Amino acid sequence: MFRIVSLLFLSVLLSACEQGPSPEEMMRISQTLVPDDPQLNEIYQRSCKNCHTLTSTGAPLTGDISAWQSRLDKGRDTLLENVVNGFGGMPPFGLCMDCNAEQLNALIDFMAQNPQQ
Ligand code: HEC
């Protein structure tokens, strides 16, 4: 009986590992990522980063590719529109009122770790 329980426990642990980093670990990873471009980095530091590196905000974390996939599946036009208008807990323009579409797209690519087209 004990053996079955410990086997079950082990398989739960293993399947948890297969799901990638824990939320705490993912949050730590997201906080180490910065855009290469200095201008983009400046925008990122004062806006997106404040929410997209904290699980408590409910925002998909920077670098959390699995969290971003369902967002990217909506299509770029919808994503951009949602950032501009605000979406759920995200204020309009993700708090970067002076950002243009090109910059917002580049920030989305960076956070979703989506190779730039
Ligand atoms: C004040 C917090 C906050 C800031 C600042 C912020 N976001 Fe968000 N963002 C969120 C939250 C929360 C969500 C998830 C909303 C939901 O799914 O209900 C989100 C979701 C998104 C999404 C997915 C939208 C969708 O349709 O699924 C994109 C794209 C996005 N943010 C881009 C950005 C960009 C780019 C910036 C910086 C310019 C930014 N965000 C700044 C909180 C923020």
In a few lines, what is going on in this structure?
The protein is an all-alpha fold and 117 residues long.
Question: If you had to describe this structure to a student in words, what would you say it looks like?
Answer:
- The model has no long low-confidence stretch (mean pLDDT 90).
- The protein has a single domain (23-111), classed as Orthogonal Bundle (Cytochrome Bc1 Complex, Chain D, domain 2).
- 59% of the residues lie in helices and 0% in strands.
- The protein has 117 residues and is an all-alpha fold.
- The relative contact order is 0.14.
- The longest helix has 17 residues, at 2-18.
Helix content: 55-70%
Note the run of SSEs as H and E.
HHHHHHH
The CATH architecture designation is Orthogonal Bundle
- For the secondary structure, the number of strands is 0
What class would the helix/strand composition place it in?
mainly alpha
Please state the overall shape, judged from the principal axes of the Cα atoms.
Answer: elongated
Looking at this structure, what is the CATH superfamily?
A: Cytochrome c-like domain
Q: Major beta sheet, specifics?
A: none
How many helices does DSSP assign?
7
What's the rounded overall pLDDT mean?
90
Instruction: Please give the domain count.
Output: 1
- How many angstroms separate the termini? 55 Å
Output the radius of gyration. 17 Å
Beta-strand proportion: under 5%
